[in-house]
Amino acid sequence: MKLPFITLLAALLLGVLTTGAAKPNIIIIYADDVGYGDLSSYGAEAIDTPSLDKLAANGVRFTAAYASASTCTPSRYSLLTGEYPFRNEKAQILPGNAPLIIDPAKPTIPSVLKSVGYATALVGKWHLGLGSATDPLDWNHEITPGPKQLGFDYSFHMAATGDRVPTVFIENGYIVGLDPNDPVSVSYEAQVGDKVTGLSHPHLLKNQADEQHAKTIVDGTSRIGWMDGGADALWTDEEMPDEFLGKAIDFITDNQEKPFFMFYAMHENHVPRIPHPRFLGSTSLGVRGDAVVQMDWGIGRIMETIEELGLTEKTLIIFSSDNGPVLFDGYYDGAWEKNGDHQPAGPWQGGKYSVWEGGTRMPTIVSWPGTVQPGLSDAIVSQVDLLASLASLTGATVPTGRASDSQNQIEAFLGRDNNGREHVVQQGVGAKSIRAGDWKYHQPGRVRDRLRIGTNHFEPIPETGALFYLPEDPKERTNLATRYPAKTAELKALLDAELK
Ligand code: NG6
Ligand code: CA
After folding, report:
1. Residue with CA closest to ligand 1 atom 17
2. What is the four-CA torsion angle of 96, 100, 102, 108, rounded to 10 degrees?
3. From the CA of 71, how far away is ligand 2's center (Å)?
4. Closest ligand 1 atom to the C-alpha of 450?
5. The pTM is what?
6. What would the mean pLDDT of 84-103 be, rounded to a whole number?
């Protein structure tokens, strides 16, 4: 057969234009409150994480990969939109009945990947709000806008966190198992219904809680906020990880023929930490260690599914966490008492809520057998970069002016560039800092931390700001701001420019 010259030319051009674009399946496994030091591949001795260790042995293990913030909502906002969270004042820890805080007109990782043919799914924790800001949400009808309007074809998720009502699963916009004669109502202002609470009936609780977490009792655990109705739809904490895992495996299996993207947002290690009984006692650390072991086991099942379906070399897996570790976060579950000398944040200071490195420097592993060379990388990368990087990998376009903080760092993520970003902004609760190369600068103010039971620790940062040289001072203890005023001014200017 003789093809006309113009057809050949077109085929050639198309070939050239599409070379470089690859469409592996992409799974982002996003852990909750898992710290840098919580995995055995990152040095943990009291917790054994064989699945993630295997992922790390066959992929790139990062030592300088950051979440944008040290709490959940802002980090998730940033990961999905490619924008730093301080650009949206609503990107703060949200109540369970908050409206959706991502504008559906903005590109997100799922919408960008969908535009180049991916099947997309959210399974697990959400915590980015649901419903519109103008109409109060009726939980008993279609819950919209939500994940679907942001580009997720399929979704199975909780509204916010395990310690917040409503304690129900939502699948494709509808509460799962809801009896229309027993409608759900939710409030964060006042009690709804007449159920007893953790405050009035503490003897009904599996674990005692602080006052904030002592409202509606569901499955023996009191929560933040009030909820009534939906008795048939309430989740069982012990079963939750298995429910999410089942949906994740189903999605992979159902979509094995197409390129797929799944945001698998695991909840295991967030409070209330209630592992399935088969994991109790897996570690000496109590429920916190056991929850990390359960998470690792679930990741192992995902990896097995990929292998069994013959998708290993077609699947890019990115594992990271949304913020640093916390031992006491509202429930007296023994995690603090049983921690021993385990270092949940590894070599770094601080954890959840803080802008010390422990709050935002995340255990991060990227695996894509056959494409990614196994190794270690100290390139500075941020979760905010995933949007532009995955768009670049898959040949998708991001409209100009959108996802403005997201840098294409695909070469760094795939372990081929060991530099990554020049600088990265870190956000805690009420504080910000910037890392540029080996230096880190903190704004004047105070750094909040929560490492002990019931108390927040506040470390003041003087008017000069604080400057640390990370290679020699990983715990950020020796403030060099007055010794190196030019360096301090340089980083301050970089941070101010980003915050503008
Ligand atoms: C805090 C809760 C905490 C946790 C956190 C959100 C306190 C007193 N309470 O307000 O228990 O739910 O919000 O966690 O700190 S996150 O990982 O979703 O950001
Ligand atoms: Ca979290």
Report:
1. 72
2. 80
3. 5
4. 15
5. 0.95
6. 98
